Amino acid sequence: MSGRPAAGAGPGEGGAFPHPVYARTVLAPLFEAVKAHHAGDMAAINRAHLVMLAETGILAPAPARDIARALAAIEAGTDVAGLAYTGEHEDYFFLVEAELRRRLGDLGGMLHTARSRNDIDHTLFRLALLRRGGDLARRVLALAAALLARARAERGTLVVAYTHGQPAQPTTFGHYLAAALEVLLRDGRRLDAAIDAVAVCPMGAAAITTTGFPIDRGRVAALLGFRAPTGNSYASIAAVDYITGLYAAIRLLFLHLGRLVQDLAFWSAFEVGQLHVPASLVQISSIMPQKRNPVPIEHLRHLCSVTAGRCETVVATMHNTPFTDMNDSEGLVQEAGYAAFESGGRALDLMAAFLPLCTIDGARVRANAEAACVTVTELADTLVRDEGLSFRQAHAIAAATARATIAAGAPLARGHAAFAAAFRAETGRPPALDAAAFGVAVAPETFVRRRDRPGGPGPAAMAAALAAARAELGRLGRALARREDRAARGRAALAAAFAALVEDEAP
């Protein structure tokens, strides 16, 4: 079989060739998609199904051997990339079958015993999604590992945390990155579960109700690297949740990463400036000499949004489709979805490279923290602990102190006089907190150190959080490794079993 398909009956009613517009707009693009994405898996399915037919006795040894040899010859002699759609056969499946029949006569049609294009197609799609899902999961784990390492290294690096776009409280860069890591690992768990739902094999469901032949569905599933056959045969063909579940999980992953990208843009803005992007990750202006444009952040935002949008396209295509076999869930939408893995993989790679290279500008952090009085929450807490006030009284004193120091343009650490005046106005007595104790209370280091409750930025809390993240990262890594090992064992078993068929010398 060379670049042009072998001649044969056309796909339409009565052997008629398809309408040229239908061929150009539907059948030819589908044929090209199979060439690009599924031809290798079609060969694996043919081999696995043939091995099973021979092992169960549905095919006798000699016919199985002849079909195996013909398949091997077709695969070796076919330049898949050079094939062009001519309309002589409806699709790539019928092209291969026609070549088998040309070589073997009616025996070539025996390979299709106990199967349908329905179960073949959904098996093809699952195999393609498993590969792409595994690659994406590997990139997620690489980003998670980078976040974990950087969070551990930056446990003591102060930053200003923002709420509602305004300076709120001091925390550490490590604490912030640990928060992003926690979300990423939850997304990783969702992705892992979604991939696991893909990893079951529809072969044997046939058109929709299985077959009257004594097939071994488990054997085919194992040879193709799946963890098990699918369950209900109707759902094997009609259900699309393996598609929608995977793309929904990917969409959430990039929706959440997009929020992190927004912070990177905000933190690196000149007016905030607490995140410094190195020269290797900025672009200059062709006209404005002073500009340092952190363009990778914009590309990250774009890639995350495009990926989420591509996932939404796939999921939305399934909306209000019938619960049966239909083309809405098949070739064209599957190919459209594969683009999400490409753009998503680029985003994950770029993020994993970008974050470890950026640094925190400590001077800008301290200046912003002092200007915005972000430590006054701890001043209020200190007044409750040390002065015996209610939190509402302490809140009023801390707010008055912040307003006075901001108005004076002075750092909060030098605002003891303003604090003492606010304290006397609220309580009618002088504070016991002297200037030195006041300075300790409003220091950002004190703020962080005292917030050592579970989930906080304090040392013990961070150590526990990072240990939990490391354990979860290990679990997800082992799950990915198990899937990859299962696929590799399936490929090896299929190669050995098919080779034995080819080499069989039984009469």
SSE topology:
Blueprint: H1 20-37, H2 39-55, H3 61-77, H4 92-104, H5 117-153, E1 158-163, E2 166-172, H6 173-198, E3 200-201, H7 217-223, E4 228-229, H8 233-238, H9 241-268, E5 275-276, H10 295-317, H11 331-357, E6 359-360, H12 362-372, H13 376-387, H14 391-408, H15 416-427, H16 435-441, H17 444-450, H18 459-503
Parallel strand pairs: 3-4
Antiparallel strand pairs: 1-2, 5-6
Helix pairs in contact: 2-3, 2-7, 2-18, 3-4, 3-18, 5-6, 5-11, 5-18, 6-9, 6-18, 9-10, 10-11, 13-14, 14-15
Question: Would you give an account of this structure?
Answer:
By secondary structure, this protein is mostly helical. The chain folds into three domains: 13-113, Fumarase C, Chain B, domain 1, CATH 1.10.275; 118-154 and 167-206 and 229-366 and 464-489, Fumarase/aspartase (Central domain) (Fumarase C, Chain A, domain 2); 376-442, no CATH class. Helix content is 65%, strand content 4%. It contains 18 helices and six strands. A two-stranded antiparallel ribbon has the order 1-2. The protein has a two-stranded parallel sheet with strand order 3-4. A two-stranded antiparallel sheet has the order 5-6. Helix 6 runs parallel beside helix 18 (459-503) and helix 13 packs across helix 14. The longest helix has 45 residues, at 459-503. It is elongated.
Descriptive terms for the model:
Fumarase C, Chain B, domain 1; 3 domains; mainly alpha; 18 helices; 4% strand; two-stranded parallel ribbon; 507 residues; disordered N terminus; Fumarase C, Chain A, domain 2; two-stranded antiparallel sheet
